[in-house]
Amino acid sequence: VVDDYPSRQYQKPTYFNRKDPVIFSDDRQKAPLDEALLDHYEKNGFLFLDHLFSEDEIAKMQRYMQCLRDDEFIKQREESITEANSGDICSVFDVHKLNDFFQSVAEDPRLVRIAEYILGDQVYLHQPRLNYKPGFRGKEFYWHSDFETWHVEDGMPRMRALSMSITLTPNDHNNGPLLVIPGSHHTYVSCVGETPDNNYLSSLKKQEVGVPDDQIVQNLVESYGIEAAVGQPGRIILFDCNLLHGSNGNIIPAPRSNLFFVYNALSNRVGKPFGDTKVRPEYIAAREDIRPLKKVINT
Amino acid sequence: VVDDYPSRQYQKPTYFNRKDPVIFSDDRQKAPLDEALLDHYEKNGFLFLDHLFSEDEIAKMQRYMQCLRDDEFIKQREESITEANSGDICSVFDVHKLNDFFQSVAEDPRLVRIAEYILGDQVYLHQPRLNYKPGFRGKEFYWHSDFETWHVEDGMPRMRALSMSITLTPNDHNNGPLLVIPGSHHTYVSCVGETPDNNYLSSLKKQEVGVPDDQIVQNLVESYGIEAAVGQPGRIILFDCNLLHGSNGNIIPAPRSNLFFVYNALSNRVGKPFGDTKVRPEYIAAREDIRPLKKVINT
Predict the structure, then answer these.
(1) In a domain, A291, yes or no
(2) Which residue range(s) make up the domain with A193?
(3) Cys staple from A57: which of A53, B47, B86, B204, with CB 3.0 to 4.6 Å?
(4) A247 and B CB contact within 8 Å
(5) Is A217 on the interface with B (CB under 8 A)?
(6) Could you write out the DSSP letters of every residue in B189-231?
């Protein structure tokens, strides 16, 4: 397999243009989103969607999120990632397998049809999780492209995946909201460094390899700026797999939590990791247990 | 000497009302600030002052700030505090002694008369410094009251000091601006924990004792909210010595730097530390070398 997106292979950081479309479907008649929204997504690599779920549905997601967080059985599972200092849960992976309700949300046609349209294919869940950024001492997450990691460490061949983050607490400027560099998804930043075995055990808490070079980040910020994904619970932040994003820490009491689904095109299933590392656990990257989601858009 | 503000002495965190005025002068005819601004300061414990310095003056401060930062001789001095991970300079203390221009700014009558009026006394410089919060990986600073530390570790008897932070880079929501809890200066939060000797060697990088209790912070935030001190270079953030403040880290390229002067009332000179610890170095808390600043307001 040709590696169209080499990273962690060169001595010096570099970058080049994306080699895949951003939106894979052409027939805008069948699109589940307005033309203007699709144009915004193509140009900027992200989109905010409000009011897709009802207040009752959001309230239910919030209740289940709290239940999982308080569940000592869940906390002991390997799918639960805890913060390096505090031991608090920061992520629970494979939430759709741990909880039927979250599975029904992940399979909801309102989400799936958007993923199907943008990716131009039937889709499956690559990585569904709950993220908790606690109040008081929530940690920062440095700039990164998810695709860079999924490509190198999981063997995802093409930029044909997207994330949907359903915010479940208020996200304001002070509690470490998601920061994105709009338009950065058009550029692939090839990073420096070698991937250690079992990198995921530490990288999910603090990423040390697959980190873009400071100067390249600075150039992209000078070209494109930064946008903070602030908003009320229920807002969906839809973003391309290659969009550079990160977040500052959170010293204020209010936590920042979200339900997070990564959809991948069925034609873009992961293979041998391009970084030649051991494959990561199934709960971090669906590999064996691929369950295609029921198609919503007729083709 | 009676300890009116005990902290780090009890097993459990507690809080009580401030026992000092916020503004010590009564004669508003002589005030260097409008009535409305003084009322805001009294109520909220802070104030933003714009256009006090000219653009040329601000540009000169920015140039000198850069010079000091790039000066290897300065970096080696004990007055320079470096970040735990990167080794970058985060603060330079006693800048007025290291640089004549910064001394002239600190003594500028436009600043001194405000300090004199609010503190109702002749004033001196308790702690003048430059703060650099670097871009990319600037560290957070957790909630704290400066007075709590100055009282316990330096022996400052009363809440009769104030800080002026002259911002020298843009402060926006994304680069870890100063966050304050407006009105929190009316409450003294007595903290838990014992002060180790030479605590300043680590506390200036990351504070571990003198940290207010989470629940008390949460109560204060619920009562008063949080305000971010965003603004353009040249804005002066004036705040009471007991105002709870902190800042998140900074992953974006733009650094956040400021010139920072603490003025103390001459009648409020530091004595024996109330925490019974060794005195901290002169550059962190003026003790022997007190130079009263020339009075501006006639009394």
Answers:
(1) no
(2) 14-18+45-268
(3) A53
(4) yes
(5) yes
(6) EEPPSPPPTTTHHHHTTS--SSPPPHHHHHHHHHHH--EE--B
